[in-house]
Each structure stands twice: as C-alpha cells, then as structure tokens.
Amino acid sequence: MDKSEIAEVLNEVATLLELKGENRFRCLAYSNAARTIESMSEDPTAVAKEGRLGEIRGIGERLDEQITELVTTGGMKFHEELKSSFPDGLFDMLKIPGMGAKKVKAIYDKLNISTLGELEYACHENRLVDLPGFGTKSQAKILAGIEHLKKYRARFLLSDALGESLGIIEALEGFKGVKRCSLAGSIRRRVETVKDVDIVAATEDGGPVMDLFTKLPGVAEVVAKGDTKSSVTLEAGINVDLRTVSDREYPYALHHFTGSKDHNTSMRGRAKKMGLKMNEYGLFRGEEIIPCSNEEAIFKALKLDFIPPELRESQGEIEAAEKGELPDLVEESDIKGVIHAHSNYSDGSTTIKDLARACAKMGYGYLGLCDHSRSARYAGGLDVSSVKKQQDEVDKLNDTLNGFRILKGIESDILSDGSLDYDDATLASFDFVIASVHSKFNMSEKDMTERIIKALANKYVSILGHPTGRLLLAREAYPVDMKAVIEAAAEYGVVIELNASPHRLDIDWRECRYAKSLGVKISINPDVHHLENISDIAYGVGTARKGWLTASDIVNTLPARGFLEALARR
DNA sequence: GCCGTTTTCGGCCCGACTGTTTTCAGTCG
C-alpha cells in the first residue's frame, strides 16, 4: 500500500470523526498523521512491518496500531465502521466549495438531508436560511456549488481517463483478432478534461473483440454491445466506447473519431472542394476509395501536411498544413530540466538529494528547486534562515553530482498588493524566482490583473507560476485578464509557466499562441510534490503541443546554462 | 489521538476570508 493510499484513509477518518462531532484535536491527529505519512522519505509499509512507526513524531500507540493494521490487512476496522455509519451522499456534499464537515453535519443532523439532490431541493425551498450558521448567502453559494458539481460530474481529468484506458488498449493490442488500435477522441487530442474515452480497433471479426472488451476487469456495466460498437462504464465512472472497423477502414475511422467535430467538418469541406467525399469509412472519388494505409496518407491525399491530433481543434491547422507552415511541435524528449519542484523543506515529500537523483536517472540535466515562500505557512513555506540553509545544502550537493545541477529557485507568493514576500537581498540569492498567486482569489479582475502585472514588473521575477490558478473540475480560475498579463510578460521579459500538473495545465493551451506571437517564452513545469509527479511533464508537453509550441518556445528545452540565460534576459 | 512534562492532564492551531454574527465559527490553502 503506498503513501497516498494510507494518507487517504487517515484523512477520511479525520473527516468522519468530524462528522461525528468528535473533539477537533482528535480529528487533527489523523489529518496530521496523513500529512506525516505522505511526506515520509521511507516506505511506510516497510517501516510499519519493522515496528518503527511509533518512533515517528505525531504517530502514537493507537495510530501505530491502526496504520499497521491497514498496511498488513489492506483495511482498517475503525475506518470501515465509521464509514458505514454515514450515508455516502455526505461525501458528495463535502465536495461543495465552502462545505466542510461541520456544515455537512449540521445539514444532516438538523434537516436529515443526506444527498446532493435533497440538498438542492432544500435550497430551492429556502430551508437552509433558518439553520444556525447559515443564511441567504451561504444557501445561494451552496446552490451554485451544486450546479458546478453537476456541470462537471460527467467530466474527467485527462490523466485519470488516460490511466483508465491504457490497460484497455494493452488488452486489445494483445488480442490476436485485433490488427491495430488506438485511443481517439478528445483524449487523443490531449484535451485537459474529457467526457468519455473513445477507442478504435481494426479487426475482421468484431464479435470476439467485443466479448473481450465488455468483460475486461474494471468494467462495471455494459451499456451497449454490438459487433461494431460497444459502450461500457468503468468502475471509475467513466464511459468507454469501442468502435471496430476493418483494417482497410481503420485510418479513416481513426481520423473521424479523433475529431474534433469542427476539424472534421473543415476536412470534409476540403475533400468536397477537391471533388472527393470523406467519412469514417473512407475517402472516395465517386464510388472508388482512395487507398490510405494510415492517417498520414489521408492528409497527403488532401494535399496537406500531417496534422498531429493535438492540433485538430479548428484553429487554423488546415490552412497551415496546406502552406507547409505547421509548427514542429515540442516533444517530451526535448525537455532537459525539471523546473518547479517542492522538497521536504516545504510541502514536498522528498529530500533534495532524492529529487535530484530521480531527475538524473530519468535523463534530465538539471532540477529547478522551488519550495514555497514564507507567507505560504500552510505549505511550510521557507523563512529567510531556511532559505539560507537550503541553499547551502544545494551548494554541497552540486559538488557531488557529476554533471547534474540543482538550481536554487523559489515559488514566491504574490501578495495581494503585488509584492513578493522576501526582501531584495533574499530574492537576489536565488538562481531564479517563480512568482505565484496562492491567496485572495476573489479579487476583481481589474485588481487581480494589476496585482499580477505588478509582480511581473519586479526585476527578480523570472517566471509567472500557474497564471490563472485554476484547478481543473474543482476550482475556477481567478478572474484575470490573461491578454494583459501576457502583454506585460512580453514587456518585462518574464517567462510564463505551463504548469504540467494534470489538475492545472495552466497556462491554458488556448492562450499559448498569443504568448508565442509576442515572443513570450514558456516553461513546462511539473510542480513536483512527489517523485511520481516528474512524469507529469508529459501532460504539460501535450498541452504545449495543443498550443502550437515548438522546442524553441520552451525555456527548459535548453541546458541549464541556456535556461538561466533565457530567464536573465529581462 | 499525540505529546511533554510544570509527569497522567491540558494544550495542540497559521492567517485570511466569509458570512454569520455582534464577537465568532467554519473553511481553505
């Protein structure tokens, strides 16, 4: 059992105890333990088996027992009993912004409401306003929160959808009746959130393939099953559609089901102008099919350069492909440095040394360490003395890492007045500074834009971190005029981050081309908190590709020295 | 539930914001 799974159970216990109305410090003990486990450098399962958990500060006799039970048996009785004493719907309510355990408890206890639907109805009936601690505003806020949840309930993060679908692709590829298969749809175009997973497979006999598909592990429900089209719902809640076609039809079907709809419309229009007809079964001149063994051939037949799936969003890609002006898109292998990593100095789970080792092992040449700054207290932000201590440690480490380099960075909070939270001398001690907004999200668009632009004008700022602050499917971006921010970045020579966390993917790909047109450079940063986040770079690269970016638009495709020189150009 | 000790209880916990209050509770990062 890995760290985050253990932490999840402990956090759930904390929430459940709060729902029960337990002493808040008892609840806190569990959420503290969750954080402690998550930031352990050793494997907690191994530590538990060696009986050393109790030595860790914050884990006493009882938690030692319970965590050991969890990692040895895969479950925790205490957790299960607590969980079964509340209806599942309460957990949905906790997803409403502004609703914590106390408020959910009040609603459950006083109004006997246990599902989102009941809660929505009660809000419409104006029944929350009389509840102590609630009023008209909180009722309206809850209603808006439910609306938001409903709107996004049917969508999934790209990373989750990919994670769920890779096993299916593997199973299909391994099946002897399948000649070739691929993800299609928005997931193949690397859109940041997706509604479902589309798969196209080439086979001469769909029946057995569909038998396999509908019985794969993880399938919760078969929505529809035929010889050429089946649809299932996975236990994770996501829908997966499989289309089977003959191998001859496969390239056309793959293109058709990859979309987007608008891209396809334009492509069909182009075919028509050339006296051809295009659909999911082929490209035809009259009755005669124009043979294409892959997608490249289809584009070629339409006198176009190959358009990578990420670009098929009807953003001028067909015109560019016609003129041979498509960009040579950045690839994952172009990325040379891992920028924006949190160590266990702040809220990361890993030591600097282990971070550097992992990056080096994955073939990267440098690590841009960026812990939180001092005003981010919730995340263990570094005070000035910790900064000094960390920088000394980095200097020592750098002497030992042949060729690999750790850069001294920081993720400095942009305070509400646009200033940073260190003095100039401290800021000057870093190799580079990422400036990010982490507080006061509810400013007006005008104030927020001014706040960020003021930070960009600070000569120590090298990179603007996650420029909109959005958390996909969870929190809207704060209001900000991105056009003005990009223009300011161009004026001051500041690089903009493309935060590669699959929860953020921020800057949005739709804004990348404007940045590029003004010469603003982008840094694809995985915002590492745990070692496994390093590979999130792939999602950032997908988003950058959607934004038409090439390796030369991205500063961390350069070696360490070039990267720092590019940042210094302001 | 954990911890430390003034050693078996009492304190633990950061600050801003919001919406509810009229001095504060709950939520969040």
Could you walk me through the main structural features you see in this protein, from its secondary elements to its overall organization?
The protein has 570 residues and is an alpha/beta fold. Among the domains are: 1-85, DNA polymerase, domain 1 (Orthogonal Bundle), CATH 1.10.150.110; 332-568, TIM Barrel (Alpha-Beta Barrel), CATH 3.20.20. Helices cover 44% and strands 15% of the residues. It contains 24 helices and 17 strands. Helix 1 crosses helix 7, helix 8 (116-124) packs across helix 9 (136-153) and helix 20 (445-457) packs parallel to helix 21. The longest helix has 18 residues, at 3-20. The radius of gyration is 26 Å and the shape is globular. The protein binds one DNA strand of 29 nucleotides through helix 2, helix 4, helix 7 and helix 9.
Task: Tell me the layout of helices and strands.
Blueprint: H1 3-20, H2 24-38, H3 44-49, H4 61-73, H5 77-84, H6 89-93, H7 101-111, H8 116-124, H9 136-153, E1 156-157, H10 158-173, E2 178-184, H11 185-188, E3 193-194, E4 196-203, H12 206-214, E5 219-225, E6 229-234, E7 239-245, H13 250-258, H14 261-273, E8 277-279, E9 282-285, E10 288-289, H15 295-301, H16 317-322, E11 337-341, H17 352-361, E12 366-372, H18 384-398, E13 405-413, H19 424-428, E14 432-436, H20 445-457, E15 463-464, H21 482-492, E16 495-499, H22 509-517, E17 522-525, H23 537-546, H24 560-568
Parallel strand pairs: 4-7, 11-12, 12-13, 13-14, 14-15, 15-16, 16-17
Antiparallel strand pairs: 1-3, 2-4, 5-6, 6-7, 8-9, 9-10
Helix pairs in contact: 1-2, 1-5, 1-7, 8-9, 20-21
The chain binds one DNA strand of 29 nucleotides through helix 2, helix 4, helix 7 and helix 9.
